[in-house]
Amino acid sequence: MVVLAGSPAVDHIPLLRSPDPGDNFSGMPVVDLSSPGAPRAIADACERFGFFKLVNHGVPADTMDRLESEAVRFFSLPQADKDRSGPAYPFGYGSKRIGLNGDMGWLEYLLLAVDAASLSAACAVPSCALFRAALNEYIAAVRKVAVRVMEAMAEGLGIAPVDALSAMVTAEGSDQVFRVNHYPPCHALQGLGCSATGFGEHTDPQLISVLRSNGTSGLQIALQNGQWVSVPSDRDAFFVNVGDSLQVLTNGRFKSVKHRVVANSLKSRVSMIYFGGPAMTQRIAPLPQLLGAGEQSLYKDFTWGEYKKAAYNSRLGDNRLAHFHR
Ligand SMILES: C=C1C[C@]23C[C@@]1(O)CC[C@H]2[C@@]12CC[C@H](O)[C@@](C)(C(=O)O1)[C@H]2[C@@H]3C(=O)O
Ligand SMILES: O=C(O)CCC(=O)C(=O)O
Ligand SMILES: [Fe+2]
After folding, report:
1. For residue 270, is it within any domain?
2. Which ranges carry the Fe2OG dioxygenase domain (predicted)?
3. Is residue 210 a part of any domain in this protein?
4. Mutate to test the pocket of ligand 2, among 51, 176, 199, 272 (most ligand atoms within 8 A of CB)
């Protein structure tokens, strides 16, 4: 991390070296969800990187564009209007503060609960009915993609039943969260060789995260050797992250990917992420179908509720799973 005496605008925001074109993730797995090879390709990408780009997912461009333009409209409102949709915790509008433990980033966001039982009432926070309708339409579609991807994961892992993983996000009481992030351009650092941290490095605690962004890059993932690589943006694709809980369910076969966002000095980034988590009481332990003869769990037993509580008491960059290793 670069530390500079910066402009007051970026006070308290950690700085990072600005990405250059040579940092691009040249080996990024791209999975065509409509192809018969998708299950194997997904399992392979999750084992190597915990991350892949998903194309031919079937969500209409209109559904994605409508949400993006409603989000842009919301984030363009006067600050006082946006603040009326806050605070961010447990759900609502937030700015610069991420979580409750002192993390800061160059962004504003909406954090929303997804109530699987009543999707139409899911996104009660944003004041505008058009925004709510766009959110509900998009979330319904992206959830279906998450389920198809988790079914493909089970198939790729060679385990039955096909819903061994996906049932955890479709179950009654599953804990699903949706987040819309807006990273304004950080003009103060233009030309200085460093950039504001948009969203600091972390892994996602849930099972799966499905991200879509506008055409502004900024997302980076850490490869298993620790090298940070930039993910070129693609507004037509989804980017899928393996979360900590899926790493545990697969006894470490799938890797929970460390990632972060670097703010651009010229362009806004808008991203929307669906986080699929299980019900609070769901036990998070390696699936028996995946344990070989005599293979032991690498982790202590815990429920999603216990893990979530520990995660929300931690700082963004903490290695949360380390406390649950045997
Ligand atoms: C600093 C934090 C923000 C976070 C809760 C936490 O204490 C640690 C995990 C963070 C994270 C990362 C993925 C998602 O964006 C998120 C909503 C989640 O479930 O875990 C955030 C949490 C947050 O922003 O509140
Ligand atoms: O906004 C992004 O592109 C990624 C944000 C992220 O990793 C998160 O919200 O957990
Ligand atoms: Fe994340």
Report:
1. yes
2. 173-278
3. yes
4. 199
Nearest alpha carbon, ligand 1 atom 6: 312
Helices marked H in 51-204 — which ranges? 61-75, 79-83, 129-157, 167-170
Residue 170 neighbours by CB under 8 Å, 6+ apart = 116, 147, 163
Q: Among all ligands shown, which has an atom nearest to the Cα of 242?
A: 3
Distance 113 CA to ligand 1 centre (A): 13
Does residue 1 form part of some domain? no
Residue 164's nearest CA partner among 147, 177, 176 is: 147
Tokens 């198939």 -> residue: 155
pTM to 2 decimal places: 0.96
Residue written as token pair 């900590």: 244
In angstroms, how far is the first alpha carbon of the chain from the final one? 31
Number of domains in the chain: 1
Could you tell me if the CB of 233 is within 6 A of ligand 2? no
Residue 308's CATH number: 2.60.120.330
Per-residue pLDDT 10s for the chain (326 aa) are: 444 445 667 989 999 999 998 999 999 999 999 999 999 999 999 999 999 999 999 999 999 999 999 999 999 999 999 999 999 999 999 999 999 999 999 999 999 999 755 444 445 566 688 998 999 999 999 999 999 999 999 999 999 999 999 999 999 999 999 999 999 999 999 999 999 999 999 999 999 999 999 999 999 999 999 999 999 999 999 999 999 999 999 999 999 999 999 999 999 999 999 999 999 999 999 999 999 999 999 999 999 999 999 999 999 999 999 999 99
Ligand 3 centroid, distance to 293 Cα (angstroms): 34
The answer to whether position 27 is within a domain reads yes
Cβ 233 vs Cβ 214: under 8 Å: yes
**Atom 2 in ligand 1: residue holding the nearest Cα:** 99
Q: How high is the ipTM of this complex? A: 0.99
